Every structure is written in C-alpha cells, then in structure tokens.
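Minutes, project check-in
Item: structure for the 265-residue chain
Input as provided by the requester:
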Amino acid sequence: MAEHDAVPMLRNALASIPAVNIQPGKIDLSFFPPRLEVDSVYFAKKRSRNALVELNDLIITVDYGSLFTGRLGVDVSALCYGGKITAHAETGSLFDVSTVSAVVDIKNQPLGKIPFLRMQDPDLKGKGTVHVQYSGSTQDITKGEGRLTLAGSGLRFKNPVPIIKKERFEEMVVTASAALDGSTLTVKDFTVREKTMRGNVKGSMKMNLKNIIDSKVSMKSRLFIPPKDLIVELLDANAVNRLKAGEEITVSINGRLASPTIIMK
C-alpha cells in the first residue's frame, strides 16, 4: 500500500476512537524501515472537547531484535511541554496482542502545563518523573503485574484535605514506589515533605475496577503537621498533644475506600 493511502486510513482510525478526540498534525509514514513520525498529536475528551494533553515529535519504530524472539516490539518517544516520554512495548507473540510487556519513562515533566491538570488547579507548579513497568493482559490489569516509581519536586497545588487549614501546599517533594500483583496494589513507600509537614504511607489496596470506591484499603501512615495548620477540633486529643510536642502521629486507614475507618494515635 502506498504511503499516501495509508496516512488517511490512520487518521480515520484515530477519528473513530469513541472516548478521545485525537488530532495528529503532519504525519510521515514509511514501511521500509517501519517508522511513524508525527510532529504533534492533540488529545481531548470527545464529548466535552476539554483538552487532555499534547505531544510533540512523536516517533514510533519497530524493534527488529524482538522479531527474532517471535514477538513484536515497538519503541516510542515524544516530547510533552518540556518533559520527555520514552516507552518500549512487546506483545506476547508476533500475532497476539492479548498480552504485553511494557516500560514507560516520563522525565522532568512540568505538571502545570498539562491541560487536564491545569483545569483542576490553574496555579499548579512543579515537575514529575515516572517509571512504569507492566507485564500481562491488555484487557484486564488484574491479570498482570507491574511496578511504579515516581518523584515530584517543587510542587505547588491546592490543598485537597479538609482538616488542613492551609490553602496551598508549597515546595512539596514527593517520592513513591508501588507494585501491582493481580488486583492487589501494594504501596511500598509514599513520602511527602513540605516546609512545615512530612509524612509517609505504606499499605495495600484490593482493587475493584468495576467500582473503584468499593476497593478495600489497608494503609498506615506516620505524619507530622503543626497543630496551627489543622482543624484540631476534628482530631483525637492525644494525637493533637503529640503534634504539639513535635512528635509524629500514626494514622491507620482500613476498609472500603469510600468510607474507611480512620484511627489516629
């Protein structure tokens, strides 16, 4: 098939995706060697037309080495508002895409420039780095396993926690690592540090993908927040006294995600 015939077919295929509006810019497609280059790709919600993200300099190539192992592998790279995305994925076999092994890296991503995040907080600042590995079903992540590590620095965003008085968090640093094994997501470490607060969370969640709020959580956190930044009337008196003494408190969260039991000590 000639190149000029394939590009319109690709555009039509992207346009037929139901939930997301994908608008590619200039497309360069070659078959020998297999390579796809797109100068820009714009993603938006199809119904609301709200912008999600835009990628630039998207390049997709075939990993020839994977063919010798009976798999189909592809390499992907793109720029995203100053951050860089790279990925490698391989199918379970050459003609079977029901399983996949994939690695994705996102480096130095400016969070405040991403449209769907900026809609939630126009003053969002900071950068993030993410590493994801996944191996398993392409249809059901509960039939797979994976790992996630992430780091954020210079984070500035609206406070989402009702019992904390601060309007915004400033210069927050976040690091996290988690593992997926079937339907169980294990948070090995989630650490946050800000000018006046610090915290660490570990635990697990048994995911219910049909209704995520019915997922079961078992988490334990150690944290310190100055009492002046808290609505202390809503907290356990002993926990408040420990915070006043400059000590960390322990918070246990167990039960259904929508309405867990929270115990402070």
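Outcome recorded: The chain has one domain: 43-264.
No further action items on this chain.
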